[in-house]
Amino acid sequence: MKLQFHSLHFDVDQKLVDFIQKKVDKLETFYDRVIDGEVILKVEKDGARDNKIVEIKLNIPGAQVFSKEQAKSFEAGVDEAVEGLRRQLKKRKEKTLAH
């Protein structure tokens, strides 16, 4: 799946990009009609410990699924965001199979 990466206020490491790509690619086992996606990584400057924000948006036929998480690290945020997307995709697949 083709993902676009955007990092605000910092340069993203290739290791992190590979980690996110691998996690998001696993979502195709739950819903195989994902067209493409966009990942936005932000660092909040407010001094809080949970200052890493991960937003993942996936385009699927006729709709989009979106998840936004805030965590201590990008890896933890990606795990939570991917889990939210997994639930959304699973629900959407069940609805299409029901019709």
Please explain how this structure is put together.
The protein is an alpha+beta fold and 99 residues long. Helix content is 37%, strand content 33%. It has helices spanning 14-25, 74-98, and strands at residues 2-8, 36-43, 52-60, 63-71. A four-stranded mixed sheet has the order 1-2-3-4, with helices on one face. Helix 1 runs parallel beside helix 2. It is elongated. The two termini are 26 Å apart. The model has no long low-confidence stretch (mean pLDDT 93).
Short description:
This protein is an alpha+beta fold.
| Strand tally | 4
> What is the percentage of strand-forming residues?
25-35%
Provide mean pLDDT, rounded: 93
Radius of gyration: 14 Å
Largest sheet, in brief, is:
4 strands, mixed
- Low-pLDDT residue spans: none
**What is the helical fraction, as a range of percent?**
25-40%
Structural class: alpha+beta
Widest beta sheet: strand line-up: 1-2-3-4
Number of helices: 2
Shape: elongated
Topology overview:
Layout: E1 2-8, H1 14-25, E2 36-43, E3 52-60, E4 63-71, H2 74-98
Parallel strand pairs: 1-2
Antiparallel strand pairs: 2-3, 3-4
Helix pairs in contact: 1-2
Q: What descriptive keywords fit this protein?
A:
elongated, four-stranded mixed β-sheet, single chain, 99 residues
